[in-house]
Structure formats: C-alpha cells, structure tokens
Amino acid sequence: MPVDSFTYLPRSFHAEYDSVLDPPTEPVWAPLDTPITDATIALLTSAGLYLADTHEPFDLERERRDPHWGDPTYRVIPKTARAGDLAAAHLHINTRDLVDDPDVALPLATFAELERDGVIGAVADHHYSFMGYQDRALHEWRTTYAPEVVQHLREDHADAVVLAPA
Amino acid sequence: MPVLARLIEGAGIPTVTVTMMPDVADRFLLSRIVGVQFPFGHPFGVPGDRAMQRQVAEAAVDLLAGATEPGTRRDLDIEWPVDRKTAYRDWQPAEPSPIVQVFLDRLAASRRPTS
C-alpha cells in the first residue's frame, strides 16, 4: 500500500508544501559499482544529532530570533557513537526518542549489525548530521556544506549514502 | 534534505533516501526512495525495536543493490504500533517551532474581529 506522506501533518500543510517546493526537472543517477556485500555505507540524517561532549549544538537561539533561518552547518559523527554519546537540537520535532535511541534516524548500531552479518561490506568511519529546517534557498548547503560532505565521503571511501530526513 | 541527496548523487555517489514523505522525494526526482508511514523523527522506526529498524535498513540496502534506474521507490508496509492520534501528538515538539508560531500568530490576527 502506498505511504501517505501527510498522515502525520496538519491538513493545511498540503498547500504549504505545494507552494514552497521548487522541484527539479531532471533526475540524478549514480550507479552502485561495487557489490553491496563489499560496499562501504555512510549515513546522513537531518535530525539535528550531535556529539554531546564535543560538538557545538545547532544554533537554535538564532532560529528563535529569526524564525525563517535554520542552522545550515553539519556535524561529523564517528561510527562508534551510540545512545548516550549523542544529543539532538531541533525545534521542529520532539527529540526525546532520538536521544533515547539515535538509531531511529542514524542507525549506526543497525548498520554495524549489517556489516557483521555480511549484508554490506562496511560501515563508513564517519557519518553526517544536519538540522533539517532550512530556508528555501539552501545556499550554504549547495555552495559549502554539501561539497564538504562529498569530500569527506570520498576520503572515507564511502560507496553509497543512506539519507534519513527527520 | 532531498536537495542534499541530489547534490551527493550528482557528485557520483549513489544515495537512497528513507523518508516519511516519499511523495516529496518523488517530486525531487530522487534516485532511490524507501517510504515509511512513521511519525516524524523516526525514519527507521520505533525506538529500541532493532528488528523494525533492521527491516527498514535492509530495504534501503536492497534498493542500493538492486535499483537500476532513478525514481525507484519502495513503500514499506509496516504499521506504526501506536494509534495515529497519539503518534501525531507525540512527534511534535512541546512548543510550536518559531516558524509555526509565526503562522499561528498570523492566523490569529486574521481571525481577530476588526472594528
């Protein structure tokens, strides 16, 4: 059965999404050239997760002052991070479950199991966390942060990325 | 987020997007899409339910391994184990986000009687 994308949104958001989306006209496609059982997989989420002890949280105070702005930066999460290492900064979702079990959005433990069981080749050494509420132009994502993440992915020899919008 | 997927895929790195809003992913012509009918903040499922999370993760991995053309979408038939009304309430923050508050204030102003 097809997923209803608006199950958990107010009905008024239908029109909101229709009015703000500016979709492209051409698809993008990169084939996976490596057998999945040899592939190194990286994860990326927009759940606002960060390392509680070492990272700066995403800038929620500025968003409170300027509701049309969202922190465009990202945090690099090591593959060893688990519940207890991670906190979440995101004003648009309840972060309780994310902090209790970050695998709901950044499934590092789950993918470690897939590596152990030979389903994938390896979990990449590093993973990426953004905060998903952004202004429409996404200028800094396009010009700065996405290219940086691509560079990190190449340095980590990641063969593919699993993205999970929160 | 679909823009990030396109930028990474456009740089030559294959992606799969696990999303509560597969219709939006479709509109952005993403390459590989796993749709889940879960409350926001939970693309891989229920906290602590490693079996459910693995089921979603394996669906993503299967698409990476098997999709042969852009726009390949698989919606998962997994029911959220909490009634819709409760789940609808629980995913939302305790206070409206700043932008939602702006909309609420605007709505309230538009409904205020004018003299």
Polypeptide structure, described:
The complex is a heterodimer of chains A (166) and B (115). With 166 residues, chain A is an alpha/beta fold. Helix content of chain A is 27%, strand content 17%. Chain A contains 5 helices and 7 strands, in the order αββαββααββαβ. In chain A, strands 1, 3, 5, 6 and 7 form a 5-stranded mixed β-sheet that branches. In chain A, strands 2-4 form a two-stranded antiparallel sheet. Chain B is mainly alpha-helical and 115 residues long. Helices cover 46% and strands 11% of the residues of chain B. Chain B is built from 5 helices and 3 strands; from the N terminus they run H-E-H-E-H-E-H-H. Chain B has helices at residues 2-10, 22-27, 50-66, 84-90, 98-111; strands at 15-19, 32-35, 72-75. Chain B has a 3-stranded parallel β-sheet, sandwiched between helices. Chain B is extended. The mean pLDDT of chain B is 93. The interface between A and B is large, with 75 and 73 residues. Strand 7 of chain A pairs parallel with strand 1 (15-19) of chain B.
Layout of helices and strands:
The complex is a heterodimer of chains A (166) and B (115).
Chain A: H1 13-20, E1 40-45, E2 49-51, H2 60-65, E3 74-78, E4 86-88, H3 96-100, H4 108-116, E5 122-123, E6 126-130, H5 139-155, E7 160-164
Parallel strand pairs in A: 1-5, 1-6, 1-7
Antiparallel strand pairs in A: 2-4, 3-6
Chain B: H1 2-10, E1 15-19, H2 22-27, E2 32-35, H3 50-66, E3 72-75, H4 84-90, H5 98-111
Parallel strand pairs in B: 1-2, 2-3
Order of helices and strands of chain B: HEHEHEHH
Radius of gyration of chain A: 17 Å
Task: Estimate the strand proportion of chain A.
Answer: 15-25%
The helix/strand class of chain A is alpha/beta
In percent terms, what proportion of residues of chain B is strand?
5-15%
Mean pLDDT of chain B comes to 93
Unreliable runs of chain A, pLDDT <50, ≥5 residues? none
Helicity level of chain A: 25-40%
Instruction: Give the strand line-up of the largest sheet of chain B.
Output: 1-2-3
Mean pLDDT value of chain A: 92
Oligomer: heterodimer
Total number of beta strands of chain B = 3
Discrete helix count of chain B: 5
The outline of chain A comes out as: globular
User: How many E strands of chain A?
Assistant: 7
